[in-house]
Amino acid sequence: MTRSGIAAWRLLRCVLHALHGLAIVLWRFGALDAAGRQARIRWWSRKMLQTLGITLQVEGEPAPAGTRGVLLVANHISWLDVMAVHAVVPQARFVSKADVKSWPVISRLVDAAGTLYLERERKRDALRVVHAVAEALIDGQTVAVFPEGTTSDGRGLLPFHANLLQAAIAAEAQVQPVALRFSDADGPVSRAVEFIGTTTLAQSLWRTAGGERVTVRVALLPARPAAHVDRRALAQSLREAIADALGVDPGDRAAPPAAVPTPAPELAQG
Q: For residue 101, what is the DSSP state?
């Protein structure tokens, strides 16, 4: 079968799997406890990666939430990042920009995972989200954020914004850096999953589905306490830890995107 044929077959299966997930959310989620929901989220995420032909590799272990929760801090490459993290840490609640609520089908799936939404048009909404994240952490939950604020090309890291890290400091929670890396048959950094520049979601879906031997590596690095830490210093240390895990120089900045819609909030200030 040609690469185009493989991509078309994978996309057809992805649509069916997405509809299956929607059916679970609409008719089964309400009857499940937290553990049952997390099991479904893990299964659905892993199955979607598999359907796209992506192999999952995991290094490290999720930090236990304990009496205070855990803030996961990851680099951001693609819309696939959320599924990659949920395949390993299904209890994670992501912070997403509110635009995602208008996406058909996807919005219902995102809602079911307990997503926290940020409205970029409202200047003070970031403060509301920081409070919401802090409350979730104090309640012992796991929350995940992309401090780059948008996707990069995966060959380096964009600057880390420190705003949402304040929630972990205020809640005296643990912070766990997560290094994400997509590779494929063509090299250690996959071009098939890039979601930058003028790339549309439809183009990204097609390229991803046509990728050859794509692997996503999810490296869960040692967690650290956030209490009484300066948020900018914390952002810098987390960025350095992720850069080290990826084998890139923290001084090397990834290529920034150009107005590409992604699930991550764009944070204007550090």
A: G
**Is 165 contained in some domain?**
yes
128: left (phi over 0), alpha (psi -120 to 50) or beta: alpha
By residue range, what is the domain housing residue 110? 3-246
Q: Are strands 224-225 and 174-183 parallel, antiparallel or unpaired?
A: antiparallel
> What are the tens digits of pLDDT across the range 92-110?
999 877 666 666 676 678 7
**Is the distance from CB of 114 to CB of 135 less than 8 angstroms?**
no
44-96 pLDDT per residue, tens: 999 999 999 999 999 999 998 777 899 999 999 998 999 999 999 999 999 87
- On whether residue 167 sits in a domain, the answer given is yes
Tokens read off for 211: 């990728």
Question: Could you tell me if residue 98 is inside a domain?
Answer: yes
> Shortest CA distance to 5 belongs to which of 215, 213, 209, 204?
209
Residue among 202, 151, 155 nearest 183 (CA): 155
Q: How far is CA 95 from CA 107, 121, 132, 146, 249, in A?
A: 13, 16, 10, 8, 27
Question: Beta-carbon neighbour count of residue 97 at 10 Å?
Answer: 19
pLDDT digits over 255-270, tens only? 555 443 344 433 333 4
